[in-house]
Amino acid sequence: MTGHLIALVGTSSVGKTSAAAALQPLLPEPHLVVGIDLFLNAFPHHWAGHPRGPGPGMWYDDRTDADGRPVARIHYGEAGVRLLAGMRLAVRALLDAGNHVVLDEMPLDQTVLPGWRRDLAGYDQHWVRLTASLPALEERERGRRSGQHLGNARGHLDVVGDEPFDLVLDTSELAPAEVAERVRASLPADWRRLEEAPREGSGGDVENVAGAPSPG
Hints:
The protein has a five-stranded parallel β-sheet, sandwiched between helices. The protein has a two-stranded antiparallel sheet with strand order 3-4. The protein contains nine helices and seven strands, in the order βαβααββαβαβααβαα. The longest helix is centred in the middle third of the chain and has 19 residues. β3 and β4 form a beta hairpin. Helices cover 36% and strands 19% of the residues. It is of the alpha/beta class.
C-alpha cells in the first residue's frame, strides 16, 4: 500500500510548519513531515546560506519595495535544481514505502508546484493553500526566533500561481491548532473514516492533541 500526501503550501511565516506539527497528533496513523528547510539545511552553509551569491546553489535577492519595506526572493542554480528534484523523488520514495507524508512547502518560483504535480501524478494527495494578510505575515516574520530573513514572506507571497487546491485557508486570525483541525476536517471522506477508526490495541479513542507552537 502506498501512502498519501497532505501538502501545506504558502509563503514564509504563514504557519505551515506549526500547522504541520499540530496536525500530526490529530492523525492516528504516523505522518512524516517533510519540508524544504529539511533539504536546504543539508546544503553546505556557504552554498545554502547565500554568502556566495548567484551561482549553482541558492541565494537571496534582497531588495526594497516601493513602500520602503524589505522584499527577499530565493533564487537557485543547477545545484538547487538537483536538490528540489531530489526532494520530490525522496517524497515519492516515502509514499512508495507506505509512509504518509505532510509536505511543508514554500514554492520558490512558479515551476515548483507543477513539478510536484508531475512527479506525484497517480498518488493520493490533498493540497492545502495557507494564506494570511501581509501585515500578519510580517508581524510573525519579525517575531521569529529561528529562520528569520526579513522580506521573505513578502517576496514569496504570490508565487503559487493558478494551481488548484482542495482547501484555501486564511490563517491571519487562526492558531496552529485551529488550522490543523480545519485541514483534518477537509480531508477526503474515506481518509477521515480511516483516520477516525481506533487502532487495534489503542484502547478505543485516539488522543486528540492540539499543540499550538508559534506560527512558523
